[in-house]
Fold:
Amino acid sequence: MQTIFWLSLFNNFLDCNTLIFMDLLEKIKAAAKTHNKRIVLPESTEERTLQAADVLIGEGIARIVLIGNKNDILQIAADKGLNNINNATFVDPLDHDKKEAYIDLMVEIRKKKGLSREEAGKLIEDPLYLATLMIKAGDADGEVAGAENATGDVLRPAFQYVKTMPGISVVSGAFIMILKDKQFGENGMLVFADCAVHPNPTDKELAEIAVMTARTTKAIAEMEPRVALLSFSTKGSAKHEMVDKVVNATKMAQEMAPEFKFDGELQADAAIIESIGRKKAPGSEIAGKANVLVFPNLETGNISYKLVQRLAGAEAVGPVLQGMAAPINDLSRGCSVDDIVNLVAITANQAAG
Ligand code: ACO
Structure:
């Protein structure tokens, strides 16, 4: 209620873009509160993470599990004047009841890879590994990390122990882009993927990325997805194996998820501008109206979202990791406390979905 009051008071001073962004985040947080999920934060002594945990517990956005020594964490919280941290659940990576059970689980999952009990015993003391084992064992619903660890270090344990959801073989990362120019997408909102994870997908993997992004769009951005698979060619205007990959991926995506609408290969202008879509792809239900853009590889996806964010002044919410068997999301090391709060709320919604 307080947020709504302040929003209405400052309505005249905020631009429309900021309002849509805040509205989306408030909806996501409100939904997260109703789900009451257990989200584990392995970087618990990291200052922004602990501040975010204090807000999350205080606002009841999620139940928070902090990995680390309880006394050390509470001392940092006291030094920072954080009052809610003692309501977290604490798991000490060096000494907790489930350590042996998690080691058994690790050895079982990685037996084909030859993981020894001794190696597992070392890995389980790493908070990033422990967090994924807690999720795998059903002791937590999701994880957010990355404020102090690199993307690869956050994702590797997740790939190895939580793995992908049934029917999906690759994890990818989507961004919800909120543009100042409302003529594009759905009132200026579009979802881009993969912008964060999988460098060079095959046609089947690209189809999976398209399907997962459609699902993310519906669940998190609350839009009916109209998915364009992008290329440097529209409907055969160029011939190249890279174009063939996008054409094949589009067919596979439609077969995998007939409940959603996909079209490709489309150039970016044909995907998002109606007059060009009509000219280059007549009869297409997506051309000119796309609100989901699927890029042919990570290079194009990552470069595009950053250019749109910087050159067009768009808000970029994410990356929302998709395709994992349970939600694990990776922060940028330059993240703010608000970014962590928002990503935990998104993660709680993914866990519920
Ligand atoms: N989805 C699911 N599983 C995967 C994926 C994926 N996309 N990629 C790798 N794996 C699995 C592998 O199958 C393997 O499993 P296994 O050990 O059971 O056989 C395990 O993960 C490790 O695979 P590696 O190939 O060794 O993966 P590596 O750890 O070298 O790399 C990583 C994975 C870190 C995600 C890599 O693909 C990468 O660096 N991607 C780019 C990340 C990045 O820098 N993004 C841009 C910045 S983020 C931003 O700007 C928002």
